[in-house]
Amino acid sequence: MSDELKKFITENGLQGGTIIGFSQHEAPSLMEDKMDNYKQDILDALHGETVEAIVIGAWEQSAYSLRNNGWNDRSGRNPEAIKEITGKVITWEEAEKWLDYMYDGGYGGEDCHPVTIWTATRVLFCGLYDGSTWVTSVPRHPIEHNPEFVGGG
């Protein structure tokens, strides 16, 4: 969740889980494109943990990827090459070059590859609500924790 959205929720007295609606006029900075580096967002979500394995999925929502049978390579490399690793368990060293690109994590269509990432204590994946995309995680092993909804409805 962006700092701007957290501030908006706090300033308006909203609680976690509250459904909010606002117009672009009411909160223009929250509605603008949110360009971020996907690899850096993943690294931030890791909180220093080491990646044990990763699977990169097909990015099926973009017009570009639909023209390429559901495959897209945002890193500027050959889109045929990413087909060879998509869906397969690979190392972070193999994956990071394919995830080092700018994407729009704001509202609209998905703008990045879905991933599943395993660390010693967490499983990371993409959260999605109305096209807004972020990297989130759940415990890898059964532990006491406070489950949360991921995405929206």
Report the order of strands and helices. HHEHEHHHEEEE
Query: What value does the average pLDDT take?
Result: 76
Estimated share of beta-strand residues: 15-25%
Overall morphology: globular
Total count of strands:
6
Number of helices: 6
Architecture overview:
- This protein has 153 residues and is an alpha+beta fold.
- The protein has a domain of 106 residues.
- The chain is 26% helix and 20% strand.
- It contains six helices and six strands; from the N terminus they run H-H-E-H-E-H-H-H-E-E-E-E.
- Strands 2-4-5-6 form a four-stranded antiparallel β-sheet, covered by helices on one side.
- Strand 4 and strand 5 form a beta hairpin.
- The protein is globular and about 45 Å long.
Write the layout of secondary structure elements.
Elements: H1 3-11, H2 28-31, E1 35-37, H3 38-46, E2 53-56, H4 63-67, H5 79-83, H6 92-99, E3 102-104, E4 115-118, E5 122-129, E6 132-139
Antiparallel strand pairs: 1-3, 2-4, 4-5, 5-6
